[in-house]
Write a structure and sequence with these properties.
Pfam families: DUF4982, Glyco_hydro2_C5, Glyco_hydro_2, Glyco_hydro_2_C, Glyco_hydro_2_N. Residues 33-180 form the Glycosyl hydrolases family 2 sugar binding domain. This is Sugar-binding domain-containing protein. This protein is mainly beta. The protein contains 9 helices and 46 strands. The strands form 11 sheets. The protein has an 8-stranded parallel beta barrel, surrounded by 4 helices. Strand 19 and strand 20 (311-312) form a beta hairpin. The protein is globular and about 90 Å long. The model is unreliable at 1-24 (pLDDT under 50).
C-alpha cells in the first residue's frame, strides 16, 4: 500500500511538473478572435453602447468582405476599377468575456487589416482610427476591460467615399483578428528584429534586437533568453542576459549569437529557423515570442543582375493583388497557399506585393514556400490618382504606416526589397526628390539590410525626380522593355529590375485565329476592334498599349544579364481593372492564371522557361468547323524538336529558332486526334494528344485534396469539367451547373474565370465557361464528410466526397 502511495505521489508530482511546464510554455496567450461577430450594413453609431440590441444583426466569422457579397452594377460608386461591386459603411460588434485572472495582464487586440477608415470602440470608448485599409494595427484594451464579465467591442468601417482605388479592395474586416494577453513585462508589438550580419555555410552570426515593454508601476530586473531552433525544433544556439527596465517604459536589448553550419534559405530549399525569445522574472517565465529566421545573402549588381547565396539568379517574378477571386478580399491561408502553389509549379521564384502591404499569411507562406519578395508600401503619395485615395491621409499617416509596415515585415527572410511606391505622380515634379529621401530615410532607420526601390515609369532622367533624389538603391522600371538595352549607358552603375512588365490580355480557352500582334487599344481612349462577347484571344498576341506580349518581354529580360529579373503583370486575374473593356467586364485580363485559378495557355510558356519540369503543351482545343485553318502552337523544353500528327499523318517537325519561345503550324481542321511528340537526340521525350470532343456526357469533379480539417477555415477547391463519353473536355460547354453541398462543409464561392460574368460568386450554381468552372467549399465545423453534388439538365448527377478530419 505504501509502495502504491509512493507511486501515486510520484505520478502526481510528474503531472504537476508537466502542468507547470505547459503553463510556462503558454506565458503569452494568443486567441483566435474571428468567431461570433455581429454585422450590419449601414451606419449605427449607437452600436458602441453596451446595452445596444443587435438581435437583428447577422452573425458571422471573420475574415469578412461585404462587397463580394453584393451585386455587380455599373451604377455602383466603385466603378470599373473596383469591379462595379458595392462599398458603403458597416459596423461589426462582438460581446466577449475575458477571465478574471487576466486582470493583471496586458490585453490587446490585433487587426491584420480593415478596409477602410476603421474606428474601434471597447465598452463605449474609442481606441483610435486607422484610415489605411492595408495596414496591420492593434490597441491595448487593458484599462477598459471588465474582467470576468461581458465586454463589447464595436468596429466602424467606412468605405463609402468612392472611388478610392485603382483595383478591387473589398470592404470590412477582411483579414484575421487576434486577442493577445501577456504579463505586464513582455516583448512589445513587432518587438524583435533579427539580422544576419555574416552568413556562410560554415557559420553565421545573428544579431537580435528585442524591445521589452514594462507596463508595471515599478522597475523590474529580468532574464532575457534567446534560443535559435532549426526546422526540427532542435536548439542550435542560445544566449542569456540579466537586464533591468524602468517602470512604464520600453527599452531595446540586444543579443548576438552564432550558428554553425547553417542551412541556407533559397527558393529551391526555403529552410527556416526560429528565434525564441523568453523573458523571466525571477524564475517565472513571463513572456515567450517567436521570430522567423532564414540564413541567406544576396546582392544586386549593375552588370550581373541578382545573386542569392553567391549563385547568379534571375528573378522570375509575378505581381499579385490581394484579392482571392470568388472569396473577394477575404484572407484565408488555404486560398493563398493554392495561389502560391500554382505560381511555384509554373516556375516563379518571386512575388511583388502590389501595391500595398499584404497579409501575414502571404508573408509567412512566401517564407515557407520559397519566394523572393518585393514588399511594397504605397500606390500614391501626396498626389492623387483617384478622387478619394490615400493622398487624403498622406500628411497625417504616411510616416506611421510606413514604420508599421517595415516593423511587421522586416523579419521575413523572403523579403529582399522594400518598394516605397508604384508609378508615383511625384515622379514628374520636384516634390518627388524630398519625399523619396524622406521615405528612404524612414526605411533605413528601421532596416539597412535590404535595398530601397520604387516602381518607375519614366526613363528620361530629366523628367524623373524620384530618380534624381539619388536615394534609391535599386531602380525598378515598369514596361518600355524596348528601352532596356540602353539602360547600362543611360543609368551607368545603377542596379536595375523590371518591377512591372507585360500587361498582355487573354481569356482562358478562347482562340481568335490571327497572325498579328495587337494592342487593344493602340493608345489611351482609342477605339479598338474587340470581341462582342468581351473575350480576348488566349494566344499570346494581344497586349495593352503600354505593355508587351509575354514573349516580347521575356525574350528581352532573358537576354539582358544586367536586368535582375522581371515581375509579370500579373500572376492571376483579379477583380477590377477589366481593361480593355467597359461594363459588363468586371475583372482583369492580365493574369497568367484566370480568376478561378485555372491556368491560361501562356502558363506553360513560363513553365517551359522558368521551371525544371519537362513541358510539352499544345493549343488550342480541337473542335472547329471543317477545313477551317487553325494556328497550332506548342510550348516545349528539354527537347530538340516537336513533330505534329493529325489522325496519324505527320504534319512535319519544327524546332525553336534563335530566341523563339514557341513553334507553330497552320492546320486545316478535320475531326479526330491532334498529337504532338517532342524528341531529344531522336528519342521521345513527351507525347500530348488533343481529341475532337463529342456531345456532353458527364460532369467531372476533381478536388485539389482528399481531406480537410473541421476547423471552419479549411478550404477545398473542386474543378468542374464537362466531358464527352470518352473523357475528353468539351471545350465550348457553357452549361449551367447546380451545386448542393452536404455534411461538414458549405459552399463559399463559385467562378468560371470569364471576365464579364455578372453572376454572383456566392450562389449555388455556375455556368461553365469553355468547359470549366470551380467550386470553393469551406469547413463548417461539423465532423462529417463533405459531399458535393453537381447537376445539369439532361445529364446524370455527379458526386464527389471529401473527408473531414
Amino acid at each position: 500500500m505504501i509502495k502504491h502511495k509512493n507511486i501515486l505521489q510520484k505520478i502526481t508530482i510528474v503531472l504537476l511538473f508537466s502542468v507547470s511546464i505547459f503553463a510556462q510554455k503558454q506565458a503569452r496567450i494568443v486567441e483566435d478572435f474571428n468567431k461570433n461577430w455581429n454585422f450590419k450594413l449601414g451606419d449605427y453609431p449607437e452600436a458602441i453602447n453596451v446595452n445596444f440590441n443587435a438581435s437583428d444583426w447577422r452573425t458571422l466569422q471573420l475574415a469578412h468582405d461585404w462587397s463580394i457579397e453584393g451585386a455587380f452594377d455599373k451604377d455602383n460608386k466603385t466603378k470599373q476599377a473596383q469591379g462595379f461591386l458595392p462599398a458603403g459603411k458597416a459596423w461589426y460588434r462582438k460581446v466577449f468575456t475575458v477571465p478574471s485572472n487576466w486582470k493583471n495582464k496586458t490585453v490587446s487586440i490585433e487587426f491584420d487589416g480593415v478596409f477602410k477608415n476603421s474606428e474601434v470602440f471597447i465598452n463605449g470608448k474609442s481606441l483610435g482610427i486607422r484610415p489605411n485599409g492595408y495596414i496591420s494595427f492593434g490597441y491595448d484594451l487593458s484599462q477598459y476591460l471588465n474582467f470576468g464579465k461581458e465586454n463589447v467591442i464595436a468596429v466602424k468601417v467606412d468605405n463609402d467615399a468612392q472611388p478610392n482605388s485603382r483595383w478591387y479592395t473589398g470592404s470590412g474586416i477582411y483579414r484575421n483578428v487576434r486577442l493577445v494577453a501577456s504579463e505586464k513585462l513582455h516583448v512589445g508589438k513587432w518587438g524583435t528584429f533579427v539580422t544576419t550580419p555574416e552568413v556562410s555555410t560554415e557559420k553565421s552570426k545573428v544579431h537580435l534586437e528585442v524591445t521589452v515593454d514594462n507596463d508595471n508601476a515599478s522597475s523590474k530586473e529580468f532574464k532575457l533568453v534567446t534560443s535559435i531552433v532549426n526546422s526540427d525544433n532542435v536548439e542550435v544556439a542560445n544566449f542569456a542576459s540579466t537586464e533591468k527596465i524602468g517602470a512604464k517604459t520600453s527599452e531595446k536589448k540586444t543579443h548576438n549569437l552564432e550558428v554553425k553550419q547553417p542551412k541556407l534559405w533559397s527558393p529551391e530549399n526555403p529552410y527556416l529557423y526560429k528565434v525564441i525569445t523568453k523573458v523571466y522574472e525571477k524564475s517565472k517565465l513571463v513572456d515567450n515570442y517567436e521570430t522567423p529566421l532564414g540564413f541567406r545573402y544576396f546582392s544586386f549588381d549593375s552588370e550581373k543582375g541578382f545573386s542569392l547565396n553567391g549563385v547568379p539568379t534571375k528573378i522570375y517574378g509575378v505581381c499579385l493583388h490581394h484579392d482571392n477571386g470568388a472569396l473577394g478580399a477575404v484572407e484565408n491561408i488555404h486560398a493563398v497557399r493554392r495561389k502560391l502553389t500554382l505560381m511555384k509549379e509554373m516556375g516563379a521564384n518571386a512575388i511583388r506585393m502590389s501595391h500595398n502591404p499584404h497579409s501575414l499569411e502571404m508573408m509567412q507562406l512566401c517564407d515557407e514556400m520559397g519566394f523572393i519578395v518585393q514588399d511594397e508600401a504605397f500606390d500614391v503619395w501626396k498626389k492623387k490618382k483617384v478622387t478619394n485615395d490615400y493622398h487624403k491621409d498622406w500628411d497625417a499617416w504616411h510616416k506611421q504606416d510606413l514604420e508599421d509596415f517595415i516593423k511587421r515585415d522586416r523579419n521575413y527572410p523572403s523579403v529582399m526589397m522594400w518598394s516605397i511606391g508604384n508609378e508615383i505622380r511625384e515622379q514628374f515634379d520636384s516634390t518627388g526628390i524630398a519625399i523619396t529621401r524622406e521615405l528612404t530615410k524612414i526605411v533605413k532607420s528601421l532596416d539597412t539590410t535590404r535595398p530601397v526601390t520604387s516602381a518607375l515609369t519614366e526613363n528620361v532622367i530629366e523628367k524623373n525626380f524620384i530618380y534624381q533624389s539619388g536615394a534609391l538603391d535599386l531602380l525598378g522600371f515598369n514596361y518600355k522593355h524596348e528601352d532596356y538595352k540602353d539602360f547600362p549607358t543611360k543609368f551607368k552603375g545603377q542596379k536595375i529590375l523590371a518591377s512591372e512588365s507585360v500587361s498582355a490580355l487573354e481569356t482562358r480557352g478562347h482562340y481568335d485565329q490571327s497572325d498579328v500582334i495587337k494592342a487593344w487599344p493602340t493608345k489611351y481612349g482609342a477605339p479598338f476592334d474587340g470581341n462582342a462577347d468581351w473575350t480576348v484571344s488566349a494566344y499570346d498576341q494581344v497586349k495593352s498599349y503600354w505593355g508587351a506580349t509575354h514573349e516580347e518581354n521575356w525574350k528581352t529580360i532573358k537576354s539582358q544579364d544586367f536586368m535582375a529579373g522581371t515581375f509579370i503583370w500579373t500572376g492571376f486575374d483579379y477583380i477590377g481593372e477589366p481593361d480593355p473593356y467597359p461594363f459588363p467586364a468586371r475583372s482583369s485580363y492580365f493574369g497568367i492564371v484566370d480568376l478561378a485559378g485555372l491556368p491560361k495557355d501562356v502558363y506553360y510558356m513560363y513553365q517551359s522557361e522558368w521551371s525544371k519540369k519537362t513541358v510539352l503543351h499544345i493549343l488550342p482545343h480541337w473542335n472547329w468547323t471543317k477545313d477551317q485553318e487553325i494556328n497550332i502552337w506548342a510550348y516545349y523544353n528539354n527537347a530538340d524538336e516537336v513533330e505534329l500528327f493529325l489522325n496519324g499523318k505527320s504534319l512535319g517537325k519544327k524546332s525553336k529558332q534563335n530566341d523563339d519561345l514557341h513553334i507553330s503550324w497552320k492546320v486545316k481542321f478535320e475531326p479526330g486526334t491532334l498529337k504532338a511528340v517532342s524528341r531529344k537526340n531522336g528519342k521521345v521525350v513527351l507525347e500530348k494528344e488533343i481529341h475532337t470532343a463529342g456531345e456532353a456526357s458527364k460532369i467531372d469533379l476533381k478536388a485539389e485534396k482528399t481531406a480537410i480539417k473541421n476547423d471552419t477555415y479549411d478550404l477545398v477547391y473542386v474543378t468542374v469539367s464537362m466531358l464527352d463519353k470518352d473523357g475528353n473536355l468539351v471545350p465550348n460547354a457553357m452549361d449551367l451547373i447546380n451545386f448542393e453541398v452536404t455534411g461538414g462543409g458549405k459552399l463559399v464561392g463559385v467562378d468560371n474565370g470569364y471576365q464579364a460574368n455578372l453572376e454572383s460568386f456566392k450562389v449555388n450554381s455556375c455556368k461553365l465557361f469553355n468547359g470549366k468552372c470551380v467550386v470553393i467549399i469551406q469547413s463548417n465545423g461539423k465532423k462529417e464528410n463533405i459531399q458535393l453534388k453537381a447537376t445539369t439538365a439532361g445529364l446524370q448527377a455527379s458526386v464527389i466526397d471529401v473527408k473531414v478530419n
